[in-house]
Description:
Helix content: 40-55%
Largest sheet: 5 strands, parallel
Number of domains: 3
Amino acid sequence: xxxxxxxxxxxxxxxxxxxxxxxxxxxxxxxxxxxxxxxxxxxxxxxxxxxxxxxxxxxxxxxxxxxxxxxxxxxxxxxxxxxxxxxxxxxxxxxxxxxxxxxxxxxxxxxxxxxxxxxxxxxxxxxxxxxxxxxxxxxxxxxxxxxxxxxxxxxxxxxxxxxxxxxxxxxxxxxxxxxxxxxxxxxxxxxxxxxxxxxxxxxxxxxxxxxxxxxxxxxxxxxxxxxxxxxxxxxxxxxxxxxxxxxxxxxxxxxxxxxxxxxxxxxxxxxxxxxxxxxxxxxxxxxxxxxxxxxxxxxxxxxxxxxxxxxxxxxxxxxxxxxxxxxxxxxxxxxxxxxxxxxxxxxxxxxxxxxxxxxxxxxxxxxxxxxxxxxxxxxxxxxxxxxxxxxxxxxxxxxxxxxxxxxxxxxxxxxxxxxxxxxxxxxxxxxxxxxxxxxxxxxxxxxxxxxxxxxxxxxxxxxxxxxxxxxxxxxxxxxxxxxxxxxxxxxxxxxxxxxxxxxxxxxxxxxxxxxx
Length: 516
């Protein structure tokens, strides 16, 4: 059975699992589940504030950013996306400067002003003489050496014009410098000097001052404020596996209060939640710059998936359970939500993996079988382990335990020095797959940390001696007090969430919770 036939038979007008990238999801508004703080982050354009949103990988940071961008279309604020960072190598990430960020933002804002004048050249009459002179000079400084491709990328970072950005780029696909000159001519402004062959004149003013002046031009053109959206900080090769480097990349900007508190400017920074402690420890000021933390529970993920399915099926499908054979006796919708580990992206990816296992079967029928569900979970778990802990898996596979101390790793399992074990555990924790559970007393009554697997997918990938159903039934259990999922192979368990102690036999397993 091909995909189109399957989708049609299942009641879908379009594939609900085709994308996990918020930037390409056309129906995002239909299934976006706003977190409780979203209106605070959106704020008032007349009185913008800077904020930082911490969220897990795949946790909806870019979706929130896109919803702000959509709100900006036709609104009173100008929206600029800062999500490209011209650095290569870990050393360069650590040496990122404030000027690097302000220079990138200033160029995007300059391009935004030019596109505004291209669409409404008569608005140039609103500009003061000083602003007109500044605009001409900044265009010469910043756009003289720019290529057409670079200019078009800056256009795509301007979200007030929405889909019109693509139309503008198609209409101006040739050399960009004549286009820039034409914009100035249309607005009855002196053309800038865009001759890149001449020695570049170096402005004496700081980038902070120049950015503030460009914001002033935007205000003269009629905007109430400028929103600068900082995103994709953890998507560089250097930052994707290291939250400390993700913070280092934007640290000069998000710890610089004069920039974050610039009048009529609101920075909205979307950052990996694993970088939150590093932010606080290295100059973050939550007392001045409010921050929010996004955490998805399985109920919220279930709602998101229900909305997503409905949006792609014109309301015909609202649960993953509609796709599974009733004889499987599984609540697939809840099971996928639980195994998504707080990530909307991973919930979509896992559902797609299960669906694809079904389609690639020898004789796929209309409904997904129980065996196909578990096979899809197994394949996806291996993918997660490969993506997030590939270089650590040889050691992790030796452990074959869900919870362990550094002493046990050093003395009984890996048989290496305590210093080497400590370094390994530190690296493992950066993946977000392993965390500290609690503190124990050793035989000499000295405290030692108990660590444990906190991602069910890693547990499935590590425990190769058990099939998926056994892992779900014998290793993953919900705390009776706080309902937090715990991964443990011990009879007596300390909850990683509320620290209460309970017996495995007294608690509900993940398999029990998702059985019908």
